[in-house]
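Reviewer 2 asked us to include a model.

Predict the structure of this chain.
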Amino acid sequence: MVFAPDTEVALRTVVNLINTAANGREELASVTELDTFLAAEGFSGARSRDAAELESVRELRSELAAVWTADEDAAVEAVNRLLRDANALPQLMKHDGWDWHLHATAREAPLADRMGTEAAMALADVIRSKEMDRLRMCGSEDCDAAVLDLSRNRSKRYCDTGNCANRAHVAAYRARQAAAG
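Predicted model (structure tokens):
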């Protein structure tokens, strides 16, 4: 384990959120799609379930995508802005089968504020641990998806959104076969 369990969950949620717009797709085109995403991520708390909430989450997605590829100083600035804008006040919480973990907003806070704060808290751990190199983009030339590398040897190069790793490995195999033959 590289980070605390709640940090890893939040980071995976950030990757999954960023990747809802990867490779020209839009997987958050409706409130229903947002509902599906939040259910898959186990995200709880108050919801307005309207177009404004959907748009605020999409704006957050863009902000987080920029942080994913930012240098440390820009990432710190973005994380601090997210925490400041949500009036974050970290507290230990226990709910929904989770043991003690940090929350920095109330369950009634707007969805984008809660999502942004959880992402910011997780990214703060990444920055403090000097692990920004674990946040990368897919190594496939035709993919722009985000990758979270939690491997022990820092070897993850491809995203989980498609078959990028498989396609790269097959292409490398075929190239070796062609060179040998």
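Strands lie at 91-95, 98-103, 135-137, 146-148. The mean pLDDT is 92. We have added this to the supplementary material.
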